[in-house]
């Protein structure tokens, strides 16, 4: 991700040009939720503006909730989808618990499409970010460091989503992952996997990673969908244990998962 030097304009405030550039980088996925902006001194040099103009732009971006302050004078990119995607869906699920099934089906469709498009469109920089996310996930899985596995899992999938360069997919995926992650932690304990499950999930993530890196778009989509079918079975198991869904609803989840797999070219493993 590169910031472009700002040219001086007589009728446009430099702070407006700076804030527009940062908004555009966020929209394109080149600045991801949670990513830290460079230090103020470094950023002003990259943008070729005074620190006063930069500070004015950062204040406006924070007020508009594109960035949030963190630490002493630092800023990170906000997840601007939480309010528009996660919150309405979370409210829907509270009012109608069976809607969580719909969210899982939506995620399956989005993940498959995102993985296929990312494989076709990923730049070298995108692939570096995907590789870094996967290697971090693998390292923490092999070290049996479970505290942040859910976050590292999401980071891997969101790095793939960012490589689509599709604004709508990037932001919907961010919102969905935030909602799913919160739901899993609070309601189902779905990330308290046993060791065999953790290693199987890692194997599936590696399969997705390999297909994306090799440029096999169809194989990448199929790998992502098979991964989510397996996640669906884990959800079913926990939901059944907690009595949250009827047998008919659980059967419906399974049928939907298999239908997606068949459309992608084969039976799930």
TrEMBL record:
Question: Molecular function terms in GO for this entry?
Answer: DNA binding; DNA-binding transcription factor activity
Q: Which Pfam families match?
A: FCD, GntR
The protein's UniProt keywords, in alphabetical order, are:
DNA-binding, Transcription, Transcription regulation
Start and end residues of each HTH gntR-type domain: 12-80
Q: Which SUPFAM superfamilies match?
A: GntR ligand-binding domain-like, Winged helix' DNA-binding domain
PROSITE patterns referenced in this protein's UniProt entry, alphabetically? HTH_GNTR (PS50949)
Tell whether Metal-binding is among the UniProt keywords. Answer: no
Protein name, entry field: GntR family transcriptional regulator
Q: Which organism is it from?
A: Bordetella genomosp. 13
């Amino acid at each position: 991700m590169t910031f472009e030097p700002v040219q001086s304009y007589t009728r446009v405030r430099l702070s407006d040009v700076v804030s527009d550039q940062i908004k555009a980088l966020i929209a394109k996925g080149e600045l991801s939720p949670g990513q830290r902006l460079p230090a103020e001194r470094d950023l002003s040099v990259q943008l070729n503006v005074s620190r006063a103009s930069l500070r004015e732009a950062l204040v406006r971006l924070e007020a508009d909730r594109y960035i949030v302050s963190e630490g002493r004078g630092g800023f990170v990119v906000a997840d601007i989808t939480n309010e528009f995607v996660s919150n309405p869906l979370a409210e829907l699920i509270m009012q109608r618990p069976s809607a969580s099934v719909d969210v899982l089906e939506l995620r399956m469709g989005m993940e498959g499409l995102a993985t296929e498009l990312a494989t076709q469109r990923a730049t070298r920089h995108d692939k570096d970010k995907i590789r870094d996310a996967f290697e971090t996930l693998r390292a923490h899985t092999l070290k049996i460091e479970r505290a942040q596995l859910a976050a590292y899992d999401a980071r891997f999938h969101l790095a793939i989503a960012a490589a689509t360069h599709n604004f709508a997919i990037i932001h919907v995926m961010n919102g969905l992952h935030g909602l799913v992650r919160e739901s899993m932690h609070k309601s189902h304990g779905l990330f308290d996997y046993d060791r065999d499950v953790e290693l199987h999930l890692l194997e599936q993530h590696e399969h997705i990673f390999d297909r994306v890196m090799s440029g096999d778009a169809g194989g990448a989509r199929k790998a992502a969908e098979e991964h989510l079918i397996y996640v669906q079975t884990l959800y079913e198991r926990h939901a059944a244990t907690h009595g949250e869904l009827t047998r008919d609803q659980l059967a419906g989840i399974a049928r939907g998962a298999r239908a997606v797999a068949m459309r992608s070219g084969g039976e799930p493993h």
